[in-house]
Amino acid sequence: MLNRQLSGVRKKTLLEALGPVPDVDPDRYGEGGPVGALETRVAHLLGTEAALFVPTGTMAQQIALKCWADRTHNPIVAMHPQAHPLHHEDDALTVLSGLRPIKLRTSDIGSCPEPYGTLLLEVPDREAGFVLPSWDQLVSWVDLARERDAVVHLDGARLWESTYGLGKPLPEIAGLFDSVYVSFYKSLEGISGAALAGTQDFVDQARVWRHRYGGMLFQQWPAALSALHGLDTVLPRLGTYVEHAKVVAAAMDLPEPHTHQFALHLPGDPARLKELSGEFLGGFWQDGPLAKTEVTVAGPALEWTADEVREAWAEFRGLI
Question: Which residues form the Aromatic amino acid beta-eliminating lyase/threonine aldolase domain (predicted)?
Answer without folding.
Answer: 25-254
